[in-house]
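Quick one, T. Sequence first:
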Amino acid sequence: MTELICQDLGRMPYGEALEIQHRLVREVQAAPDGPAYLLLVEHDPPVITTGRRPCDKHILASPLQLACEGIQVHATRRGGSVTYHGPGQLVGYPILRLSSIGKSVRAYVHALEEVLIRTMDHFEVSAHRAEGMTGVWAGEAKIAAIGVAVSRWVTYHGFALNVATNLSHFGLIVPCGLMRKGVTSVSRCLWRPVGMEEVKPVLVEAFKQVFGFEEAVRTAAGGCATGGTPALGRAFGKQGGQWGSTGKQRQFQVPGSKFQV
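Structure tokens:
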């Protein structure tokens, strides 16, 4: 397995983070045996992004209203429809070769959902997939969105987990093009403030487990520790060769992939 380098970008405008993704995609394409990357970022100023699907009607706010709220709009080449990114939301951009999971985009998206579900398990938030829809849900509300892109078998874009997000901003759009579906956050589910630094090491550890990386090498300050997280180890103790979730047996096989945890 190649090395995983975790870069914590802190708070950063969307355009700057996209430039970093493009640079790393070219780097991974040029070096098949080189490292994989996981970028973690909060987007500030807040931004609405559109995917490859035509979705102008899913932006409900006028340009003037968005300007008054300080929200930018960016068109992207990822899958999916309209979504929102802003402070309090943990966005992850994995840059890796799909060959490590069998070159299946569906398997890759499934694995990202598993990372997010395991992260929520650690906080005792019951999260799940919803049939026919991409992302992760807590009850009837979406807590994490996924929209990926692939260039020459290298992934970019990724996932967005609502940690302590301003959920009122989702009222400016039809999130992911899903009518009459709510959104929630980790803080709302737990009825307490949840800091980003609580979530980052847990998510990185879950990412390592699902994708089979032994270590995550930190290249910037802020929460991507190289070692395992003791609290996460308790939540995901090994049980009979399988990774259990908060004491319950669960085996995870990514469809069409070459790995199992």
